[in-house]
Amino acid sequence: MDPVVRTTWGRRGHTPILQHKMRHRSKISAIGAVSLSPQRRHLGLYLAWHPDQNVQQPQVIDFLASLLRHLKGRLIVLWDRGKPHLGQQTQAWLARHPRIVVEELPAYAPELNAADQLWSDLKGHDLANHGLLDLASLQREAQRSRQRIGPRQDLLKGFVRHTHLPLRLPP
Fold first, then answer.
1. Domain limits at 53?
2. Residue from 121, 122, 109 nearest 165 by CA
3. For residue 164, is it left (φ>0), alpha (ψ between -120 and 50) or beta?
4. For residues 127 and 82, which has the higher predicted lDDT (pLDDT)?
């Protein structure tokens, strides 16, 4: 619930002040993927929200299982070396699902991760400088963000292009 503070406009000589009445330290954790379909020449956005909890191995496994249900063929997953990705439970699940091929990014390289570009956009445009007072309001804003970003092929392509990875994107 801590507001993400970004640069904003204000009257000359008057520093803008963001007032916030934090009632409790609620949060929403998210897991997401930007998919690229070579057959359809289309990018997709998949997000899962987890109110008041961190994303751990069970949430990663549920998300991957959901991707398997929605996407056909082999899935190549590019991800960082976060603990939920490398844990024994996740690795055992991946071993039982050979449709998923994992390519690990360097330990800390957010510039190579399209999902990190997504989070930056979401926080910078939709959740910056907010004064939301409860978790339900934060969830509504997060869902609006998903609705804004999901259909925008130009934004999704931008997230992928920003990585400079050798991926073939549709024109």
1. 28-162
2. 109
3. left
4. 82
